[in-house]
């Protein structure tokens, strides 16, 4: 492809995919595979473009995308004009005229934000996500649009650049534990086997493990995907059972994993352990940099990310704020300045890997915080640090327990559930209490510790290491 050809591909990828892309028709579909490979090829270059060129390109996509939804929808056309946003001459900064939308606002706006499908965008499909708030929100897509995006950005990762994605899409390669979001999109065509409802403790059952091992061998070489904690537990068992499995790559989803868990997972594959940020309704936002663990590059070719605090856009290297996303991918359910519910920051310095796509860091969900009696909040990132460095990471304490869960069940009470590996001594208990109390800066909160056999999965069958007070009250646990 010529340079102009690549640029056109990146601006209008939909022009280059076959018209009849739909779920159930993708396996071994040559036209689809060819388009995916060409798109990935163009992306492997654009990730090194100078930022001025990426911004120029984003401006073109922004104008095209907002122009299209302005034309198709009375709601969006009025919305843009009310806030002085004019698609045909829009600059990237003009996006800031528009309000930041959150889940609650989208729920209030209701169906009018969806755009009527046309023949290009058939068939459509929708699903509901519950989110951390428990209120379900409808996501409405053209199958074609979502498949073009998932089919490509799921594989947009440095560690996968040297592999043939075409081969991967010619057979059922995925073995999946839990129910990550891409199940809605890829299950029919590419899942060899899914174990949707298993919990960590189910893996103690050797028959189930045999079934999983057989699936991995059947899918060989398998792309293993699943909730972080499930994969970490499975990896422990694979090592314990001393089996060799043809695992080509591992991708953890839905929850952060500790360094110890990551190291365990690394031992079961010669291939990459892949970490990406994706969001309900937004798709793949960014991928972890291999030279900069814990930092992610934005998929700027399809998203614009801003960091916003109290309606103010924060500069690069500034304070932490909420991740706000505008996506160019979905014209039926437009994502225009959507507050994605993650907290983080963008860095301005260039990355040592040479990629020019901006680098960002994020920490879990807003609302996932311990509320102290004074009203002060202990944010998710501190809880993560506690979890990965002290509870699971610290060599001594990490050995004590298979799993921890912290539940805030009253404003002045935390319940700590532990699935122990061995009896916990008083000195060790003190150490755990101290590590948690340190977060409270002198405020008084009671910590109740309880050893249990099993920690039940939370909403959406996902295991969670922390249950905030709001969720505890809502679910009447
Ligand atoms: Zn990098």
UniProtKB/TrEMBL annotation:
InterPro entries, per the entry: ANL_N_sf, CapK_Type1_Caps_Biosynth
Domain of life of the source: Bacteria
Residue ranges crossing the lipid bilayer per the database entry: none
UniProt protein name: AMP-dependent synthetase/ligase domain-containing protein
């Amino acid at each position: 492809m010529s340079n102009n050809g690549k640029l056109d591909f990146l601006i209008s990828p939909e022009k280059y995919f076959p018209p009849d892309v739909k779920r159930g028709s993708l396996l071994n579909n040559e036209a689809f595979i060819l388009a995916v490979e060409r798109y990935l090829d163009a992306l492997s270059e654009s990730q090194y473009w100078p930022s001025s060129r990426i911004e120029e390109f984003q401006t073109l996509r922004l104008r095209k995308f907002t122009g299209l939804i302005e034309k198709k929808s009375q709601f969006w056309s009025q919305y843009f004009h009310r806030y002085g946003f004019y698609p045909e001459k829009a600059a990237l900064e003009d996006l800031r005229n528009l309000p930041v939308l959150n889940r609650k606002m989208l729920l209030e706006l209701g169906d009018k934000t969806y755009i009527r499908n046309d023949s290009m965008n058939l068939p459509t499909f929708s699903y509901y996500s519950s989110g951390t708030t428990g209120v379900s929100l409808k996501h409405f897509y053209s199958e074609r649009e979502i498949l073009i995006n998932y089919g490509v950005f799921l594989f947009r990762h440095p560690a996968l650049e040297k592999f043939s994605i075409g081969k991967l899409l010619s057979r059922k390669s995925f073995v999946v534990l839990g129910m990550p979001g891409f199940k809605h999109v890829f299950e029919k065509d590419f899942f060899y086997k899914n174990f949707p409802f298993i919990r960590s403790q189910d893996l103690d059952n050797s028959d189930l493990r045999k079934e999983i091992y057989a699936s991995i061998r059947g899918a060989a070489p398998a792309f293993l995907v699943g909730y972080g904690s499930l994969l970490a537990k499975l990896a422990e068992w694979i090592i314990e059972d001393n089996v060799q499995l043809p695992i080509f790559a591992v991708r953890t989803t839905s929850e952060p994993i500790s360094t110890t868990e990551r190291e365990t997972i690394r031992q079961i594959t010669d291939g990459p352990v892949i970490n990406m940020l994706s969001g309900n309704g937004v798709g793949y936002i960014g991928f972890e940099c291999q030279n900069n663990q814990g930092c992610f590059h934005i998929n700027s070719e399809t998203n614009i990310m801003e960091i916003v605090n109290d309606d103010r856009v924060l500069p690069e290297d500034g304070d932490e704020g909420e991740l706000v996303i505008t996506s160019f991918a979905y014209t039926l359910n437009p994502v225009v300045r959507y507050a994605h519910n993650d907290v983080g920051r963008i860095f301005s310095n260039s990355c040592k890997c040479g990629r020019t796509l901006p680098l960002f860091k994020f920490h879990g969900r807003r609302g996932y915080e311990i509320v102290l009696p004074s009203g002060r909040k202990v944010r998710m990132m501190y809880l993560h640090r506690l979890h990965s460095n002290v509870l699971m990471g610290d060599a001594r304490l990490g050995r004590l327990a298979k799993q921890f869960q912290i539940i805030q069940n009253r404003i002045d009470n935390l319940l700590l559930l532990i699935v122990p590996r061995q009896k916990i001594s008083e000195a060790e208990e003190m150490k755990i209490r101290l590590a948690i109390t340190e977060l409270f800066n002198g405020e008084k909160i009671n910590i109740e510790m309880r050893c249990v056999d099993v920690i039940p999965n939370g909403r959406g069958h996902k295991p969670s290491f922390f249950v905030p007070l709001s969720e505890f009250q809502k679910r009447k646990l």
